[in-house]
Amino acid sequence: MTADNRPGPGAVLVSGGASGLGAAVVDAVAAAGGRPHVLDLKPPTTDVPYVGVDLADGRAAERGALELAEQAERYGGLRGVVTAAGIDTPAPLSGVDAQEWERVVRVNLFGTVAVVRAALPYLERTGGQVVTVASTLGVRAVGDATAYCAAKFGVVGFTRALSAELAGRVGVTLLIPGGMRTHFFDDRDEQYKPGPDAVLNDPAHVARTVLFALGQPAGCVVRELVVTAAVEPSYP
Known about the structure:
This protein has 5 helices and 7 strands, in the order βαββαβαβαβαβ. By secondary structure, the chain is of the alpha/beta class. A 7-stranded parallel sheet has the order 3-2-1-4-5-6-7, sandwiched between helices. α1 links the parallel β1 (11-15) and β2 (35-40). The protein is globular.
């Protein structure tokens, strides 16, 4: 049980759980007495149920999510899904390879949809919760980010529609985080990296808000959460 006597998070599937916000969510779920299950291209650093999959491949993502959902049956059934996988290749539209542009959309949007679709029957049995991870760039567009903005705007629309579709059956929360101190920016050209004075949020802080959403009692749902550093420039 949590400190306020709500049940712990139980078995939670985290896509993108090997790094960044996803890894922080895995740690937070485990610390709260839950059982994280990770779907990612690379293995997590903690010993948890894991399926390796390229989340750009929707059918493979579905199969991986199904495998982990079946494993979660050993722990009382799947109680939550957090779609934390995300990538970006910032560049002008004319300067980014078409296949890479489409891969950004596939991982961020199609991968999110595939994981949720596969997990839904299991979540309906437990009255579970979905938390999708969008971005402040899913509500405010910037240049040189057409693929990322298209995908994250899509996650926002998908989640809001899903919330209406599943009302009363599965809780659906849209998480809109600002920039975080992760390796997300490492492989970018210097011009697209946060400057030396940039203030980025701690992913562990954001992960705690995910736990808050997952921990709502039956009949209550947190529809949307915007979580940023206090001086986040991309919101509002």
